[in-house]
Amino acid sequence: MTKKFLTIVIAMSLGLAFSSVFAQEAVRIDASKRGTDISPYIYGQFIEHLGRCIYGGIWSEMLEDRKFHDSLVGQHSVWHVRGDAWLRMNATEPFVGKHSPELLNDNNEPFGLVQNGLRLVPNKKYVGYVWAKPSDSIDLHVVIDSVKDRKVLKEMRLDPPTVTDEKGFRRYAFEFQTNDSVTDTEDFSFGIIGIGKGSLRIGTASLMPGDNVKGMRPDVLALLKELDSPVYRWPGGNFVSGYDWNDGIGDRDRRPPRKNPAWRGIEHNDFGLDEFMVFCDYLKTEPYIAVNSGAGDMSNAVAELEYANGSADTSQGKRRAANGHPDPYKVKFWGIGNEMYGDWQIGHMPVEKYAEKHNRFAEAFRKADPNAVLVAVGDTGRWDETIMRRCANHMDLISEHFYVGWQLKPDTPLLKHIYDIPANIKRITDAQRKYRKEFPELKGKDIRIAMDEWNYWYGPEHFGELGTRYFVKDGLGIAAGLHEYFRNSDIVYMANYAQTVNVIGCIKTSKTRAQFETTGLVLKLYRQQYGTVPLFAELAKPLDASAALTADGKTLTVGIVNPTDKESVLKFDVSDLTLAKECRRFEIAGKDPMEHNDPNQPQKIDIVETTEPFDTAKVKVAPYSVTLFKVGVVVP
Ligand code: AHR
């Protein structure tokens, strides 16, 4: 290469480099200006009985409608009849729920109930059982075959167990192992098949991978462990306003299946309060239970509190002990109701009436458990103005919700898309600050915010009901939202990203795989790496910065959101701290704002960690990125 040519190449690349570099901006950080410590609970999560959040997400059950809630007629039924048997739904003596299937067969052909859509992975053990009552003349089998060509993968003849229940049903257990001939892209059927003439009644069935963790999916739990959220709100959401918690305790197979009171699907009642506590225990997270103040009444809600927290000699504590949990769960956070201001909410009522209902619930809760932290339903404007004034003595936290999405259009500018998240947080915190100043009832009180539902919610449902997808631009908005919580750490006590798995979730699953969305990566990154002592930080828009020291004061953490298509070279202007010359750098970036992950594909977006020299005069952040820097503080 000639010298002249080399000079041209260098000049061209410099030119290119400069044209793609944003003008240098300064991040001003002042360590002498510190905010209130950031509450760990702002990394909270929310799970609701809706879509594929719990069933088809967290819970390992592979069969749909395993208790036969639906009537097995019509094209939408997940079960269908195989063979020539006659089917009726026996409502006189159901095994569980309002009816159970009964097949009558008068020929020698195999017959039974079959469900398609099963996905299996190679070299895995599966465990299951069927509660059934066949005539003595019938042999019971479980058959797994390919939907495509009916090729049988497994056929198991089930020996009758000796024990029957009071209705004459027996629990037939089975297990099988796949080899490497199966792939998780092939659809299999699961069949409960009788051979012989006579009647076959089926109570319920179950099929789970053998490595389930107390009924939960290990791949989903592994990601939840990484997310490391310190608190989970459960069971709703709109669901809770029609939920009877009694349906969700006791023998799982005998709990009644119901139509989800607020959403499209079936509530199988396989995951109830005790399972939620097992989930929290496994994740080492705190439970936050919302009670039904919609259709539900106060005594049933107080009974729920007693079931969770009462000693084993209280009437509800006895039930809990009988269900295998003698020790009280000591649940601290209790939400009284959900969005009772909205006409979509079961039991919705005018605020004046609801304020009285709330206070009655709160008095009974405080009496039953003086340690309970009570969260009241809030909504900025007239609803909050009434609740904050009339219920101030009956709550510890005020719940607020917001979703960005309804107002978004395909042509919404990117910056609006991203910064609508912090704008909503500011709108709500500003309103609460105003109430504090204006309402004498709040004098001397410190009722902080539990933003117990916040997120984006828009776009097509790829992952079941409300299973919308998230993109790089949404990850950037969630990071900007966290920055706004840090700026308001004096008034935001808790925030629960809504929701967790599949349903507007930061984790998405297929039947056999799970993966973080961009939003989940951001939540995980900040929870794991960001400091807890907020410092004053400033950076001109369109970028956004926040800074905090770790609790021991030894590390400065700085988060930067770059929503532009240009790399940005920033100058860090840090007062009151001397910094090390090396940093750890964590980056979540996309080639364009619409890049996204998908559990059916290899993961595209991830957190990329590097250790590199740290020069305050030249800190680079990539286009469409969230970058978190960790720099040691040098003690003089
Ligand atoms: O998170 C989905 C729904 O949004 C919740 O059920 C409800 O509380 C809110 O309106």
Task: Give a nutshell description of this structure.
The chain is of the alpha/beta class and 636 residues long. Helices cover 22% and strands 32% of the residues.
Largest sheet: 9 strands, mixed
**Helical content band:** 10-25%
Ions, cofactors and other ligands present here are: alpha-L-arabinofuranose
State the shape: globular
Overall pLDDT, averaged? Answer: 95
| Extended strand count | 31
Low-confidence stretches: 1-22
Distance between the first and last residues' Cα: 51 Å
| Total count of helical runs of at least 4 residues | 10
Q: What Rg is obtained from the alpha carbons, in whole angstroms? A: 28 Å
Structure commentary:
This protein is of the alpha/beta class and 636 residues long. 22% of the residues lie in helices and 32% in strands. It contains ten helices and 31 strands. A nine-stranded mixed sheet has the order 29-28-31-26-25-24-1-27-30. The chain has an eight-stranded parallel barrel with strand order 2-13-16-17-18-19-20-21, surrounded by six helices. A five-stranded antiparallel sheet has the order 3-6-11-8-9, with no helix packed on it. Helix 4 (298-309) runs parallel beside helix 6 and helix 9 packs parallel to helix 10. Alpha-L-arabinofuranose binds at residues 48, 236-238, 338-339, 453, 498-499.
Main traits of this protein?
32% strand, 9-stranded mixed sheet, single chain, 8-stranded parallel β-barrel, 10 helices, binds alpha-L-arabinofuranose, 636 residues, 31 strands, disordered N terminus, alpha/beta
